[in-house]
Amino acid sequence: MNRVRKLIIGGAAFALAAIVGVNVPMASAQDTPAPGKRPAMRGDRMMGGFVGAPLISIALKHKTELNLASDQVANLEKIKSHYTSQVTPIHQQLTANEKEIAALMQQSPANLIQVKAKIQEGEKYRSELRYLRVEALENGKAVLTAQQQEQLKTLVRSQHERFSKQPQAS
Asked: Which of 58, 74, 88, 120 is the most exposed place for a label (fewest CB within 10 A)?
């Protein structure tokens, strides 16, 4: 019985350490954004190389090159604003959740039932954020013509190539 218990606790501790190790940088990046800034999005690649709301920001930044009409600009700004207003409170909840997990882990012994519940709660927040990114992406794509979507993909690709060719500071 003790052997099984040690195995379960060891496995849970390892899994939690892995989750915390991955989520600490994410939690720090998800603090409330500065006014006028979108919350940080990390690594959520969607089909065709598009990412959620940052893609909309890129399209708005390059509205002249994309030859966006004024109604397209207004629609994209509305989508971006709606997205930001939806994700900001979820990011705040996720950050608070991660802090609660960290506090639970400071207890000795940690209450694994509470930790597990908090981890599951955090995953619900993450899935909601992912869905909201997909929704913003699809709404943004619907505003653009097929030609504008291709131009935007090319812009994003060239920006990515320029960024990846810059020497990285060590």
From this structure: 120
Predicted TM-score of the model (pTM): 0.64
Check residue 67 and report its DSSP letter. Answer: T
Q: What is the amino acid identity at position 135?
A: E
Q: Is 51-153 assigned to CATH 3.30.1890?
A: no
pLDDT value of position 60: 94
pLDDT lower than 70: segments of the chain: 1-53, 168-170
**The tokens of 31 are what?**
């603090």
Three-state SS for 133-156 is HHHHHHHHHHHCCHHHHHHHHHHH
pLDDT computed for residue 161 by the predictor: 83
The ranges assigned to domains in the chain are: 51-153
- What is d(CA 80, CA 88) in angstroms, rounded to the nearest whole number? 12
